[in-house]
Design a protein that fits this description.
The structure is a homodimer. By secondary structure, chain A is α/β, with parallel strands linked by helices. Chain A contains 11 helices and 14 strands. The first copy, chain A, is elongated. Chains A and B meet through α4, α5 and β2 of A and α4, α5 and β2 of B. The first copy, chain A, binds a DNA duplex through α2 and α4.
Chain lengths: ~350, ~350
Amino acid sequence: MSKKTSSPRMTQRRIAELAQVSQTTVSLVMNGKADSSHIPPETVQRVLAIVADSQYVADPAARRLAGAANRIFGIFTYESAFPSESVDFYTPLLTGIEAAAEHAGHDLLMFTSAPVENGRRHLFHPNNRLRLADGCLLLGREMDADELTRLVQLEFPFVAVGRRETAIPVPYVGADYVSATAALVADALTAGHRDFYYLHLDSTGESVLDRQTGFFRELMDSTARFEARPVSSATLRTAWEEAKVWRPTVLFVEDPEHAERIHRWAAEEGIRVPEDLSMVVLGEHSRPENRDVDFTRLSAPRIELGSRAVQALSRMLGEDAPAEPIQELLACTLEPGTTLAAPNRDGQAAR
Amino acid sequence: MSKKTSSPRMTQRRIAELAQVSQTTVSLVMNGKADSSHIPPETVQRVLAIVADSQYVADPAARRLAGAANRIFGIFTYESAFPSESVDFYTPLLTGIEAAAEHAGHDLLMFTSAPVENGRRHLFHPNNRLRLADGCLLLGREMDADELTRLVQLEFPFVAVGRRETAIPVPYVGADYVSATAALVADALTAGHRDFYYLHLDSTGESVLDRQTGFFRELMDSTARFEARPVSSATLRTAWEEAKVWRPTVLFVEDPEHAERIHRWAAEEGIRVPEDLSMVVLGEHSRPENRDVDFTRLSAPRIELGSRAVQALSRMLGEDAPAEPIQELLACTLEPGTTLAAPNRDGQAAR
DNA sequence: GCGCTTTACTAATGCGGATTACTAGACGAT
DNA sequence: ATCGTCTAGTAATCCGCATTAGTAAAGCGC
């Protein structure tokens, strides 16, 4: 009940004085090394009793400086995490991360101070607080390969969220877009489609490439006719016109927003979806509730990705840290939606 | 171009060796104290050159231990920040906080490790990493008065998001629910309402009390008849029945979810909103997009609350720290909605 | 040529905790 | 009585940086 008398911070040294032992002993007791250091139970109890009623809290900075872990995971997002456009991308990931961190008793240090250079943040800046964390999670659609390399060289433990293909293999937890895309293609084939057109983003991000891999892999083995083409918001109109000339029975679209716009244009032009043209969406950057159309699409388990990433990082920091980098791919969910149906053999799209 | 040769971490001491000066000098230069310490420009340049190409980054733990600030703000949420129900409450706040932190070059340390005891988190636990932060932000609908007191005693800088009424005044940035509620009541009075029924939450949280204050303050001066009653999800049905007996022309409801349910019941019972009964909503715990009904309601500027809280904390940590605790109230927006109209004199609700 | 001031630094210390190396005393075996 | 071993600790050192208290050398007035 003594409470600590006034201000001077509670430290191990003060506890040591009160318990009539040395600071070393206090440290030993606090870190559970009492047994292996021949500290008898009575002494341990004496120390613990004083610790308990002194409200002592170890200074995390001192612990870290002395080389101990601190149960802090850093989080670095290559785009700002909250601002509008990205909010819906990051929120589910952060939800999973937070839940797992809370469960495991970890704090999360968000590196929001990272300076932005032409739209991308940089983890390594002269003031980075990286070393405060025991390890860190990297989020973002695309990451800087040099920074990943540097982290590996520093032997700083980290896990990327999303598959990463780099010269040196890095640990990641990602979504299996290859299989999910292939499965959607297979569904379309089963439904009878033989003319596939794919409007994908013009990016070298792994998730983008993976969808293409899935698309082509499944179609290569089939007798279907197919075509893929990169688009951006700016070229979407042209792409749509070209697509119509090509006369697909099913249109795969990567960006949900592009899909919305095309769906609208189709409606205006009297092209019915899915009767005249089926549509499948492969990306999901904004929240489903906002959608007017219930597209047939895939859905990455983003909450789970977040928590699995935390678990992976925990494993890496544990005793039995695996030698190989952890690389996990989680299955996506296929959302049936209402925009994939059997092709209309008589009247194809854009007659 | 030398790069640091192999592993041994770059430290001020290594830089000192390379620059042929003492570690002290390096520290002085790094902290801009060169001028006041008679370090000539050439020496400063020599040191800075080596720092620049050595990719040196100061160890934040060491800085903190030595008493320097670290540009880290802690964030403590009394409820888990992301999990489902709370997500929509915290997201806008975090958006504002993140934006302001990024702008000011601060990192954010989220204290997710805080243990949960019957639904509430506790900031002070034997392993808290509070001291790693320069100051912290407290979020949550209700906060533990003891913990606030303890923070004050520790002289640990913090800002609460949301008005806080405590024995010792604490710094906060909150929303002015009193005025906003009063304004909505005034609108209803102007529309001709004279029979007000208020279903509020049974909580002692300041925001809840403030809405009551606004409600009563405005009605005390009027000739209107009014009644207020605490409700919970469990007692809502009963409350609704009682309300109908009382025959209000306008119903103020604190919880948006309660309002949704009542709106549904009213529809089933043939009571038209707002023709037969006007409704006004005062709380906003979930996102507007999810709403079926566009209620007349108030809206707290949550993004701004977040960023203003960060700014307040920055001010407290600056040179000219104000002696008085910063206490700011931001105005709420009144959303006109479609559920407040002139009362129907002939046929009141629940005939 | 002797104090005094200014310049240009550096040695030493402390922050709080983890860890290693060491010591004093007790006990057992020879 | 002597050596070795075990117990119960403690002293000392280190982590990397910030800061205070010097100190050696140069410049200057008289």
